[in-house]
Amino acid sequence: MRLLLIEDDPMIGAGVQRALRDDGYTVDWVRDGIAAELAITDHAYEMVLLDLGLPRRDGITLLQRLRAAGRTMPVLVMTARDTVADRVRGLDAGADDYLVKPFDLDELGARIRALLRRQRGTATPLITLGALQLDPATHQVTLDGTPVRLSGREFALLRALLETPGKPLSRTQLEERIYGWDDDVESNAVEVHIHALRRKLGPHWIRNLRGVGYFVPAQA
Asked: How many CB atoms sit inside 10 A of residue 179's CB?
């Protein structure tokens, strides 16, 4: 799950990026509005975390430009602007949620999970396919009720596949989901994680459509 953090305060940015990475997200961090727009043009993000008081291009203008360009990913505003008028302006500009600084990192995590559930069109926090169940909040995976221990990358890859059952994702798409700019990615990294998941879950859970990509069957 790849997120874009747009925050010009180095202390807040570093703390949020570290906390979200500990939660299993891949987080790219930029510090101004123009760099953010370029990043969104070049990469696929599941969510944007947006400060409003940005240099070079302010957050409201950036948000309006993204929505005008047809970008539909959830946007969570994180800002010190706390008046009702500020909230209304941010939400009317296209934000999906609005969080006032200072905020608790646990609350930020919960809001991210809620927005991602809404994007998937489900109210339940769990992702379930047959006997396989994944909990984004606790990072627990169970198969037939038995816990399955996964590495952070394995968890992120499995989550990406479970969110699109029956739809193949290419190696490049999977790399985009689980690796950030500053990660060293070996050429066979996705295949290594797929092999580990098949060993832990069973070979039938993850299929390969030759020349297209990997998928989990819609009915497992």
From this structure: 18
Q: Among 46, 28, 22, which Cα is nearest to 155's?
A: 22
**Cβ neighbours of residue 28 closer than 8 Å, sequence gap 6 or more:** 2, 3, 4, 5, 39, 43, 45, 180, 181
Amino acid of residue 93: A
> How many alpha carbons fall within 13 Å on the CB side of residue 153?
16
Q: Could you give the dihedral angle defined by the CA atoms of residues 217, 196, 189 and 213, in that order, rounded to the nearest 10 degrees? A: -10
* DSSP label at residue 169: B
Per-residue pLDDT, 13: 97
Q: Percent of the chain, pLDDT > 90?
A: 78
Using 70 as the pLDDT threshold, list the residues of the chain that sit under it: 123, 220
